[in-house]
Structures are given as structure tokens and as C-alpha cells.
Amino acid sequence: MVKIMASKLRDVELITDTGIRLGWVYDLSFDEETGEILVIVAEPDEDLDVSEFVTDQEGLLLIPISAVKSIGEVIIIDSSKLAVKSKLKHLPSVTATAREKRLGGGLQRKG
């Protein structure tokens, strides 16, 4: 198993396996008890219509970690596993408490 530091994920672009640019890694949300990463919290691309995607109260995309196909210079997301509102029941809940426990307290995108 290859280990990747959370800090290395800052500013990494998220693209679906069908070529849709989703945005950039903003943060990670994890289960406090198990340490398991639940979702990637992403700043959406300005051209992305987020109306069908699961977002938090701040408008950030919530992408289940199970949708990640590969991590490299970009993160490839399996579009069939992407959290959309019609599949909301499959996404682990991200509460205000969980958001406060994100790794890095907010991985800011370089501007």
C-alpha cells in the first residue's frame, strides 16, 4: 500500500473518468473513531453545475472516497460512484462536527 500525506493532496485537481473537471481538493473528512477517510471535500470548478452533486452548506462538493480510481498529478473519480443527490443515501453523513475534524483544518487552494 502506497501512503500519501494529506498535505500532498492540496490543490490536486479532481476529474471524472469521463473527463469532467470537478474542482480541486479543499479538505478531507474522516471518521473520528476509525480514522477512515469518508469524503474528499472539493472546491468546485467555476464551470461545474453543482445542482446535481452532493454539497455541504458552504457549496463545497462531497466526493466519497470510494469513488477514487487513482491518485497522481490529478485524482480520477469513478463517475458511476460519484455522489449525486439521487444517490444521497450511499454517502456517509458529514456533520458540522465531522467538518471541524477535517485534516488540515481546510486545505487552501493556491491562487
UniProtKB/TrEMBL annotation:
<dbReference type="InterPro" id="IPR027275">
    <property type="entry name" value="PRC-brl_dom"/>
</dbReference>
<protein>
    <recommendedName>
        <fullName>PRC-barrel domain-containing protein</fullName>
    </recommendedName>
</protein>
<feature type="domain" description="PRC-barrel">
    <location>
        <begin position="4"/>
        <end position="82"/>
    </location>
</feature>
<dbReference type="Pfam" id="PF05239">
    <property type="entry name" value="PRC"/>
</dbReference>
<dbReference type="InterPro" id="IPR011033">
    <property type="entry name" value="PRC_barrel-like_sf"/>
</dbReference>
